[in-house]
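User: Hi! I'm working on a homework problem where we have to compare a predicted structure to a textbook description. Could you give me the structure for the chain below?
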Amino acid sequence: MGMPLPCGMPAHTHKPEALLEALLFLSGQPMTAADICAHTGWSREETEAAASALEQVLDERRGLRLIRVAGGYQLVTRPELYDAVKWVRTGVAELSPMALEVLAIVAFKQPVTRADIEKLRGVSSERILSSLLQQGLIVDLGRKDSPGRPIMYGTSAYFLECIGMDSLEELAGRVPPELTAPAGEEIQEDIDGKATEGNE
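Assistant: Happy to help. Predicted structure tokens:
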């Protein structure tokens, strides 16, 4: 996690893009527009303008780039430089193929229960779910209104940060074929049914 930043910074005369770059560098994690406004006193429009200016500054000649991720802004290493600096990276351990499979199911089928996941995989997923929870990649979304009231799982903001996406909407249209196979149709119908009930 990045270091906490105090709110209500004193008046300054620095270029907005320079201040934004410093804030994001010190934070080490995504900052929402609301967070940036609180730290700088800027309006949302001024924050957007500073972000646009910073994007222009961080062109192809720089080692960092500004991305919109998990509902906020973050400085990240340029993809073409990753192999040269990946030894520095710490945080989430590399996931096994089985863990990636479970994470993909949660991402594309959420909210989803352990039974739903195990029906798709055909094997127990309890330990993998526990590990993904500990790493902060998935979260407990509450209990399903069904017999036994099983826990429903979904992905976290940290998951979006790790995959470099701003919202779950960006996953739309990217559902792997194996997650649309007959084995998963009943699960998807149940999820769609719940969504319809919620809109009535």
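For your comparison, note the following. The beta strands are 64-69, 72-77, 112-113, 138-143, 151-155. Residues 55 and 66 are 6 Å apart (CA to CA). Good luck with the assignment!
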